[in-house]
Amino acid sequence: MQHNLHHRFDPNLYSHLPPHQQPLPDDTTWTPPPSTLGFAWGSTQTSYDTPPRVESTGGGVGPMYALLGETRGRGRHPFDLQLSPTATMDVSRTVLVQRSGQGGGASTQTMHASVLDDGVSMHRPNHMSRLALSQAAPAGSVPCRQPAAGAAMQDQRADVGGVAESPRCVECIVCRFNSLRATSEGDGAGAAMQERRLDLCGVAESARCVERIVCRYNSSRPTGDGDVGGREGGASKPDHVDVEDDDADDEDEDEAPVKEAVSGRTKKQPSKVRGKAKGKDKEGDTNDEGGGSGARGNWSLNESLVLVQCKRDQDDYFANAGTNFSRMKTKDQKWMDIAKRMEKEGVRRDGEQCMKRWENIFRWYRKVWDREKDSGLQSYFLMTTKARKEKGYKFNLDRTLYDAIHIMQGNNQAVHPLNLVDTGNAQGQQSQQGEQSQAAAGGGEADTSASENRGADTGDGCGRRSSSNDIQGKRKNARQLAFEAVTDVMKTHSTVVAESVDRASKRQCDVLQRQCDIMEREARTQERQCEVLNVGQRMLCEALLKIVGNSEIARGGHRGVVVTEVDIGHRNCVGVRRCESMDIQMALRGRVLGRTITFYEMRHRQGEKDGRLFDFVGEVTGQEVGHYEVDANGDTILNVVVALGYVDDMLREVVGYTTKVGRAIPDRWEGGVDVLDDIVDLLMSNIANEHDDLMTVPADFRVWPDPPLHDRPGLRGEIRNIDE
DNA sequence: CCGGTGTCGCTTACTCGACA
DNA sequence: TGTCGAGTAAGCGACACCGG
């Protein structure tokens, strides 16, 4: 082993500070304050100024020192007698042994727990601080060193304040330890013991064992024990000598008898390691400490409370230390620190035990918390043991302990998770909104448990599982969050696209609908236009026909113009405006038996008798012959020639002849309405109408049917207007 | 990608008290 | 005295996160 000339961390320097302000012990870069400083840095100032001791195994040392010194087969003596733990970086443990037989004064020996032993430089804030209490008179420490004790003691830091109180007691413990070891191994405390130690992992191990004895001694000092007897018969807890080793793998054989001997327990030794044990056996060293509750080292409530308090102190410390300060410490270092804090409080547990105990009680707390925070459920603390077991709470968590943990979990995301994945519970928490508040609250990085996550989680929202009883689901991890974010984006994108497409479709539909409407209106318009056009064309056609007709009339055709139409029951009489200049003009139109009967007067044949005899029976003095073509629905059915006989310009008698054209008119009258009679009546009525005041009373008519028409009664009679 | 860390669930082994 | 169940420390692996 080499002397480390750099100074190592000394927790005593910070013993006056609250725990959260004390640096961790493994700050190898820690630099001691200048020696010129006064005692403001504590009584250890002198230790820095003290030159390293010269290693020596000179005689004159006490039995323990000689023993351990001889076991040092190589390198330095395990007792690197540098009293002050701050003397060198190598020093981590101090053993104060009264060497009563030498000089009569109290002498101190500082045991060097070699760093090389386990690679971990142990320091014990607990006993260190207690030693510090004894350092109130550092000036007196130096004289207390015994030069006669050998050169090995020359660089001791005489922590005589503590040593002077009961050095004898410590030595007795050490001696007892050795005797116990010798007894248990059936060996003496001499060279065999040394070899035994060499067979193990080195003398440092035994040195550490001794150191722990001293630690226990120091821890028990406040109890007022002044001698061995007091310890043996006094408080039972200090009576148990802690022989735990951090590297317990190498000390199984050593510690077993010690445990049994010093614990005073009758419990059988475990025949095999616990569970999937790695061979460790920590029972002995955990017994009785701080009110241990069992031979197997069950944690008492007080111990657990101390653990929680120390954990909280460390959390505060890390929270105040800086963002990543906690990450500069390994897990073991952190738990060792907690163990030391607990040791300060009088609870002797190693870091691993603390870690496991914390895991367990925190796990219980989480389960209870998951229940307590749900309103409506019966409180865990009000449940019977049976009910607890039925509910899966197969543990017994004290309310005090629960409260103690609960106080420190205000910002613990493991307890108050931010992002949860609902794994089945409808009340799955999705407290995304909590991130902001958490981010605001998470000023530091409280390293404990999930509180350490706070700083990180506030950044990315990642977290850990929140529940141990599957009530709330799991915390979302980064992948889940990223996936959800992508999913949200995709969902939003899909929604936007769908809405856009929908809007576009609707717009397109609207456009198409409008186009359809327009086309329909256009169609209707075109229909109306067609109708109008048809009407116009029809009118045009009619007009053209009329024009053509007129043109025909003008060219000598035989069509006229309808002026009036008179309904005469089954016969209609239509007044005609005559056109004097035309040869053929419509003289009369009427309806007979539903047919339109039209009389066209052949004016160009006016006066022609066609060889017929018009025998007027009266004193007729003048005659006027007229020719008519009778059409029924456009078909010529009859030709009529009549002669108007006048007496003094007064119509007196009409004689006429009818000639059948076609087959529309029956040859003979069979009874009922006679078409021929009606046609003749229609003509006579028209003549009567034309001669209104120029007709004698009575004025008769006689019409002779040409064969094949037979005569009938209706062909003769008085001329009269049928409208009357 | 890897190591360290914190958390959690599950398991194992042990202790201890109750009970036959 | 042996058995059994409860309680629990402890081991172990998985998981997730962070930082290098």
TrEMBL record:
InterPro entries tied to this protein: Myb_DNA-bind_4 (IPR044822), SANT/Myb (IPR001005)
**Domain named Myb-like: which ranges?**
296-362
Q: Biased-composition ranges for Low complexity? A: 426-440
Q: Name one Pfam family in it.
A: Myb_DNA-bind_4
- Please list the residue ranges that the record marks as compositionally biased, kind Basic residues: 265-277
Q: Which Gene3D superfamilies match?
A: Homeodomain-like
Acidic residues bias spans: 242-255
Region listing for Disordered, in residue ranges: 1-61, 220-298, 424-476
Annotated PANTHER family? OS04G0670900 PROTEIN (PTHR33492:SF11), OSJNBA0043A12.37 PROTEIN-RELATED (PTHR33492)
The protein here is known as Myb-like domain-containing protein
Q: Which organism is it from?
A: Chara braunii (Braun's stonewort)
